[in-house]
Amino acid sequence: MKRKISILLSVIMVLSVLFYVNAFAGVDSGLENAVKLVKSKIDIPADYKVFNFSNGTERNKKVWSMDWSTKEGGSAISVTVDEKGNIIRYNNMKPTLGQRTQKLPKLSKQDAKAKADAFIKKVSSEYFSQVRYLENMNRSLMDITYSFNYTRIVNGILFPANYINASVNSDTGEVLSYSAVWSEDAVFPSTEKLISKEEAQKAYIEKLGLDLYYNLIMEDGKKRIYPVYSPKRPLYYIDAITGEKVEVLFDNSPYYGGYEMSFSSIGGLNEKGAMDQVSLTPEEAQAIESVSKIISKEETEKKLRSIKALGITDEYKLLDATIGKDYSDNEGLIWRLNFVKDAKDKLYKDSVNVSIDANTGEIRDFWMNFSNRDNEKAKYDKETAKAAVEKFIKEIEPDKFKEIELDERSNQDEKIALLAGIQSEFRFNYVRKVNGAIFLSNYMSLRFDAVTGKIVSYNMNWDKVEFPSLDKVIPIDKVYSKLFNDVGLQLQYKQSYPQEYLMKFPELGNDKQEIKLVYTLNYEKPSTFDANTGEMLGEDGKPYKGPNKYEYKDIKGHYAEKYIKILAEYGIAFDESEFKPDSKIVQKDFIKILSSIMNFGYGINMLSTKDSKQIDEMYKVMIREGIVKESEKAPDSQVTREDSVKFIIRMLKYDKVADIKGIYNCNYKDKNKINKNLIGYVVIADGLNIIKGSNGYFNPQRSLTRADAFILAYNYLQN
């Protein structure tokens, strides 16, 4: 029975992916036309002589999938064409495509996008005329390709279900992949009878709305809890014609199964002698102390067998018991026990796996596996299941039960199973509620088997944290005002299928889809607000500043403008409205540039050089990596040209070579002014074109400007 549900869900989740229903017999003229079409638009190299094809249907349309490859293998081009002559997929596979190092690409983003645009226009000009390019600000120095995303626009309104994606090699300019998802025959509702935006806002407040939550983030290795206002029904929209709420089914994440860790006594050393001479680190001593306080394996097993709902009878044998670190609590340990029921007449053994807090005895999670029961029918309804689930929670966590409430948000798996009439289990998710605010990070998730009447899985996440008071929370009306002014509702077309149609798989295609016109929150901005101040917050829990699109007011026409803009594409930038290119750069700002390069541009610009704790952490990393020495740390001092070279050469790991004395020929006229210990550094940097002098002078003691620091970083990334 579960297998049937799995098949049905799989089909529904891949509506926009190639789905073969019945292979077409024989080869007709369609293949010839498809081959000619592809070769008229795409260059197939002459040495790609191996040809293969397959045919089937996708979204109720006949498609041809073809690939050309070299006889040696490795290089190949694959293309998929539909019956209307649209190229819907393209992949250019190259065996030499390797991983990028810390180096800037040969092709700029603008030039790469021009390549992608030209390719899309050639293979599907009709599609290209109906899409809008969506700017992607996230890029790393490790990326070997540029990725470009385009969304379909209908009547001036976004239709996210239809899109084009393309990727371009950032060194060669080759288009490596292209895919288009398109609803050819979709009928789009007219915009003539729209409710006004004001009516939509009122409907949003009444039928969807915001709620009060506690959020959790990690800061400096510690958990920080803060109150926010966020949408309470993020998977619903407002129908732009009727003003009613519209539901979108969604997919649940698969249940997580942890790995086993062994833990046993160690033999082979004498009780005295060698072991007495061994010293322990504070971390080792803490781990040993924590182990000494844990509940024994025997006590743990006895406790689990006493819980009737788990059903661990004497028929179940303890297969293994392991212990390991609790990653949700750095000081805790978790027992993991695996019980198996011997069943010689069954293909699969029934088993129960349990994780339990080794200090408190709390059950963190469990799951049960049963032998195949496809022919058995459900015997229990949802109300019975809910009662059993809540009885179980009260039995094992009576105090926590008082702090939870059922999360009523849509469960896609359950809804589809009910429609298809093959319901075999019910899922329940309870979220923690503290001081009247929902804390989504803490929950209890359970699955109830409607055939056996057993709870077959349970997962609890519960933090030991202090919750801030809600005494200073502002009224929700003020937040709605900011939501609609700062984020706003926008029109979008959404794709859906009639509920009765979901049962009629596998005949899923464009002809049965419904397109709804809805009002939804602007997807380009966050819709989470500080409950005390009303400020819009980003994912880091800090006031939202917008995407990392660095546009400085004071660099136009400057000799370093080109370099500043290129590095900004990779997150190597100053988070300020003015760059101040000719100002002297201080050490902490220069080290931040180097940190950005080390981190390939990822996340480092969340670091504030005005926050002393963050600056200290940055220096710890750079000192550990050998780029800065402890004695050199001077965050607010100006960086000289020779010092900047010293840090750069250490980044390249050439410092040991640079430290060799007497082998370097320095041609700068002012070489006598260069620190004698840095001659090798300057010569190497000059040879690598990282830094150049002026009129034969290096000017080693001159302070580096912010603009020159970026040119230096740019030159470094050319090596």
TrEMBL record:
Domain SLH, chain residue ranges per copy: 547-662, 665-719
Lineage: superkingdom: Bacteria
Statement: the UniProt record of this protein carries the keyword Signal: no
Keywords: Repeat
Keyword match Nucleotide-binding: no
UniProt-recorded name of the protein: SLH domain-containing protein
Organism field: Pseudobacteroides cellulosolvens ATCC 35603 = DSM 2933
